[in-house]
From TrEMBL:
One Pfam assignment: Pterin_4a
Keyword Metal-binding appears in the UniProt entry: no
Keyword terms: Lyase
Catalytic activity: (4aS,6R)-4a-hydroxy-L-erythro-5,6,7,8-tetrahydrobiopterin = (6R)-L-erythro-6,7-dihydrobiopterin + H2O
GO molecular function: 4-alpha-hydroxytetrahydrobiopterin dehydratase activity
EC number(s) stated in the UniProt entry for this protein: 4.2.1.96
HAMAP family: Pterin_4_alpha
Gene Ontology biological process terms, A to Z: tetrahydrobiopterin biosynthetic process
Similarity remark: Belongs to the pterin-4-alpha-carbinolamine dehydratase family.
InterPro entries reported in the protein's UniProt record: PCD_sf, Pterin-4-alpha-carb_dehyd, Pterin_deHydtase
UniProt name for this protein: Putative pterin-4-alpha-carbinolamine dehydratase
Enzyme class (EC, first level): lyase
Length: 112
């Protein structure tokens, strides 16, 4: 199985399928530091990253912005002193696509 972080996002059209419950159960195990939240009926992946100060949090945020632009798939980001909350979901399908799991794995790699 190719590592999630090595995969590329696919263009996600409005009729693209959400992940099934079985796919969700399999994929979430591959990104153990991430949780699933439901907001306004939309399932999302979320992780809070901790940092020593605001500058390091901002540096991480900027790297994530570059990654999002490279993949043309964009997260929700809350950047605060010492922490960054990252949320992934697919706006076009109002839910979770495989792309979101790929991007969560790629987000974790930014820490390497
Ligand atoms: C207009 C639309 O937002 C764009 O086509 C792209 C940009 N980035 C995106 N990011 C995310 N997370 N979901 C999308 O559906 C999405 N669509």
């Amino acid at each position: 199985m190719t590592e999630l972080a090595q995969m590329k996002c696919e263009a996600c059209q409005a009729d693209a399928p959400k992940v099934t419950d079985a796919e969700l159960a399999e994929l979430i195990r591959m990104i153990p530091d991430w949780g699933v939240e439901v907001r306004d009926g939309i399932m999302q992946l979320e992780r809070v990253y901790k940092f020593k100060n605001f500058k390091l949090a901002m540096d991480f945020t900027n790297k994530l912005a570059d990654l999002a632009e490279e993949e043309f798939h964009h997260p929700g980001i809350l950047t605060e002193w010492g922490k960054v909350t990252v949320t992934w979901w697919s706006h076009s399908i109002k839910g979770l696509h495989r792309n979101d799991f790929i991007m969560a794995a790629k987000t974790d790699q930014l820490l390497d």
